[in-house]
Predict the structure.
Amino acid sequence: MTPSTSPGTRERSLQIALSFCLLDVALMGTAAYLSNSLTILSDLLKESTDLLSILAAFLTIRAVRRSPNHHFTYGIGKLENLVSLSIGLVMLGSALWITWRSAHHLADPQMAEGTIPGICIFALYTFIGYRIYFRTRRVCQQQPSAIMESQARLWFSKASFDAAMGVALLLAYVFRHQPWSWYLDPLASLVGVLFMLHAAWAMTSSSVNDLLDATLEETTQLRILRQLVLQLDDYDRLHKIRTRRSGPHIYVEIFLQFDPLLLMGEVQKRIHKLQQSVGEIVPGADISVRPCTEEPK
């Protein structure tokens, strides 16, 4: 495993995100105290749930790194999927609360006051949020992980939310003496709800697939099959390929039939060669080649 794909890289990425969220909650809490803006108050709630989500993700990554024991011989990689699912549910609850508050303010609109600190914070965190999103995506491409994909979606949603909120508050401040501008504050919160719902759906749907032991994406399976075709002379028949993902870990099982006249030493040599070739296209995967005489059930 190369340094760029080590679990420590994911931990460092989450540590940066956690530090950012702690600062964000402190600053946004101050801005919410100084204003009567629903947008800022809603963002404070969202930042608080983000902080809890990232903290849970960080603790989960550390737990998953532990060596398998006699209770969990394959490790606890699926804990990542359970945490990602929980993060999605927390975001869904936050979105429903924001929607309820926005509906109340639309029915009884009022001028947002004391929003300048909030506008400055939104502008700063829009820039920082997109930087963290692109960093997390690079880590995800180097080492696929359900929880890191969840974090990438979370940060994209967060940065886009901050951008929408900042623009809405800026317009509401510039035109604050116009009654129509009083609706911008609750309407901006509803835009943020859409981002949160999208992120929550993406998190829960991807996590459920892995919890159900869904196979890897078709492109990866085709690459594995291509390697087997290139080494067709090393075995007699391909019976089955099984793949699954457990947190950051990938498992590949290949059931092959070999010439019955071959010695076990020669069969093992060919199995090792196949494992190396498949391992090159699926880095870090646990690859098992199983000799068999009939297709497994």
